[in-house]
């Protein structure tokens, strides 16, 4: 099984820290966010990783190379300037992600979490036509910057409590089967998928932070006892 770490975002809210580097290369606890993700995937037995790139993508290539120094194998999916949005980036990378397995794990490159992705490895997905869910997303309690949340749990009515999309999930390639290449957002696809019972959910109550602003980056580093926020 492979995983993709989404790293193509511009990171405008992080300026000036992202003037010369992509957001997932910002340091948390003394090393880039991306390095934390790669270590977590490797610990779960996932050593084939795709990283999509747009803004300052060469910085990521220069640091990680082919992944051999980190005990993994990394491929890169280069996107045009401005990126392709989340679903568009995943769709472009599908030929790499589904060479040997129809399902793959997705991680946002700009989060910091202790979520154990090995639980996703065991999760079985398939085509809705065969009675399976085509995607599984991890939700978290709503942070201060997203008090209204994004999605309800799949077993709840759609007008119940909403939780925040963590940026962690697993997808079967059939979830994207009828979509062409281009700039495509993931949120609307997930909402539609939940309504059609194509998407399953879980609520994670462990450590999770969205490193979306310089203030939040400083906050998480202060909490972990690190002063370097660059």
Amino- and carboxy-terminal Cα gap: 32 Å
Return the string of H and E elements.
Answer: EEEHEHEHEEHEEEHEEH
Query: Mean of the pLDDT scores?
Result: 93
Helix content: 10-25%
What gross morphology would you assign?
globular
**Main sheet record:** 8 strands, mixed
Low-confidence stretches: none
Domain Nucleotidyl transferase: 2-126
GO molecular function: transferase activity
Keywords: Transferase
Protein name: Nucleotidyltransferase family protein
Please give a handful of descriptors for the protein shown:
single chain, 25% strand, 6 helices, MurU, NTP_transferase_dom, 12 strands, transferase, Nucleotide-diphossugar_trans, transferase activity, 230 residues, two-stranded antiparallel sheet, alpha/beta
Architecture overview:
There is one protein chain. The chain starts with a strand and ends in a 6-residue tail after the last helix. The protein is built from six helices and twelve strands. Strand 2 (27-28) and strand 3 (31-32) form a beta hairpin. The strands form three sheets. Strands 1, 4, 5, 6, 8, 9, 10 and 11 form an eight-stranded mixed beta sheet that branches. A two-stranded antiparallel ribbon has the order 2-3. A two-stranded antiparallel ribbon has the order 7-12. The chain is 24% helix and 25% strand. It is globular. The mean pLDDT is 93. The protein has helices at residues 33-43, 57-64, 85-97, 118-121, 187-195, 214-224, and strands spanning 2-6, 27-28, 31-32, 48-53, 73-78, 103-108, 111-113, 135-140, 151-152, 162-172, 199-204, 208-210. The protein has 230 residues and is of the alpha/beta class.
